[in-house]
Amino acid sequence: MRDGEEHAFYAQFNKIDNIKNAVVGFIENIPVGIGAFRKYDETTVEIKRMYVQSEYRGKGYAVNILSELEKWAVENKYTSAVLETGRKQPEAIALYKKNDYKIMQSYGQYLNVENSICMMKKIK
Question: What percent of the chain has pLDDT over 90?
Fold first, then answer.
């Protein structure tokens, strides 16, 4: 866990109570990755809970999960996606940049959190 002592801070914003949309990736009935989104505002979703098991990383599963989340959000009339990741998560940052997410000003609970990087993408 790279977040160290900050993990408890982030955990309070990653509860599943308000998450109704999730995608689970399977290979031969084995779950290998997950991603979710929740409503951020009337036109925007917040991408949450992106994770791929270590032995399946680098094989495109995260890209596929993220793409499915974006398609689902568009089907539900959302036009943007935002997310937060940590500076100590270079693979996640690279994934999002590769998929056209741009760094934006921190939002909500992530304002003034030194480790946070917030990103946004127009989805269609």
Answer: 77
